[in-house]
């Protein structure tokens, strides 16, 4: 019988790998040491999980087309946004051909459901999953945030809590079918609330900044690393006022603070892959004053960059690939 399994991380890049099918990249946006975990229960074609993270994180990812993924945020010190749509006590739909971008706040806790339609050998379970998928997409109407009544939100969150609290569940197609049926009972009559896409332009600006920095970190010569709001405005073709408003509205940070978090996150990603020395990683992302860089890095991640690289090298010597 499978038991719920809990995996713990102390690094945002380690956390992004815990949901293995999600092909995610995380960028930490608030300062301090990171602590996270994922607890999951896996049945044939169905996975239930709880993710918790201590720091605000910008997530970007995608799921295979065969998967349906959704969930509810249970806790957070601030608001969540999925593809620019504000999320409260709502159902968040992560699957879709366009991928997703998600901003989660400090002290975040999320309960999720991942359904692999191709792995459901039971024909009745497959039909239930298909009906659930059609129902969610119908009610979403092209959005990613589906409004739930307080009663529906309470039922779903309580159901997910209880499912992940059991000591053992028989790993059978029958149990997958039962759980899918219960989910359909709870979610078959969801209703879309008011239009939450008024801030889509702001979200697109924030997303464009993240993508630019990712390209710059990869060494793409077409994407240099902007170090000022003026540069950023010029590169993206967006006014400085729009960038200022967008970053503050979406992330709670100024454009320079948001830009610094993304750049530091990409440096950390390079160090964790042991792709280059600290100085090279820092200068690639435009950090030329190394003492200031080390100070900012430590403020965001709770350790010096040299400590990150040393830990990675020590782990590799202890556990050679």
Automatic annotation (TrEMBL):
Pfam families: HTH_18 (PF12833). Residues 207-311 form the HTH araC/xylS-type domain. InterPro entries: AraC_XylS_family_regulators (IPR050204), Homeodomain-like_sf (IPR009057), HTH_AraC (IPR018060). The keyword 4Fe-4S does not apply. The keyword Ribonucleoprotein does not apply. One of its GO terms (molecular function) is sequence-specific DNA binding. Keywords: DNA-binding, Transcription, Transcription regulation. It comes from the Bacteria. Regulatory protein of the TOL plasmid xyl operons. XylS activates the xylXYZLTEGFJQKIH operon required for the degradation of toluene, m-xylene and p-xylene. This is HTH araC/xylS-type domain-containing protein. It comes from Ventosimonas gracilis.
């Amino acid at each position: 019988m499978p038991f719920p399994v809990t995996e713990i991380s102390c690094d945002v890049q380690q956390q992004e790998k815990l949901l293995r099918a999600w092909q995610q990249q995380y960028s930490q946006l608030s300062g301090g040491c990171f602590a996270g975990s994922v607890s999951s229960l896996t049945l044939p074609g169905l996975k239930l999980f709880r993710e918790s993270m201590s720091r605000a994180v910008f997530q970007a990812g995608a799921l295979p087309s065969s998967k349906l993924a959704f969930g509810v945020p249970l806790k957070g010190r601030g608001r969540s946004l999925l593809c620019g749509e504000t999320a409260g006590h709502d159902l968040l739909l992560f699957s879709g051909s366009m991928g997703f971008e998600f901003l989660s706040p400090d002290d975040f806790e999320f309960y999720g459901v991942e359904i692999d339609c191709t792995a459901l050998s039971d024909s009745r379970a497959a039909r239930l999953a298909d009906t659930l998928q059609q129902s969610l997409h119908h009610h979403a109407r092209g959005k990613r945030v589906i409004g739930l009544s307080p009663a529906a939100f309470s039922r779903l969150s309580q159901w997910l809590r209880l499912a992940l609290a059991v000591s053992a569940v028989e790993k059978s197609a029958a149990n997958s079918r039962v759980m899918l049926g219960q989910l359909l009972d709870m979610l078959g009559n969801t209703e879309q609330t008011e239009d939450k896409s008024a801030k889509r332009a702001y979200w697109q600006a924030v997303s464009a900044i993240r993508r630019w920095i990712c390209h710059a970190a990869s060494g793409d010569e077409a994407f240099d690393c902007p170090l000022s709001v003026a540069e950023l405005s010029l590169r993206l073709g967006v006014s400085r006022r729009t960038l200022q408003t967008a970053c503050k509205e979406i992330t709670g940070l100024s454009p320079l603070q948001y830009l610094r978090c993304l750049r530091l996150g990409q440096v950390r990603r390079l160090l964790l892959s042991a792709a280059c020395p600290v100085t090279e990683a820092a200068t690639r992302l435009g950090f030329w004053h190394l003492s200031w860089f080390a100070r900012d890095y430590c403020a965001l991640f709770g350790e010096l960059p040299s400590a990150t690289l040393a830990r990675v090298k020590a782990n590799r010597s202890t556990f050679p690939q």
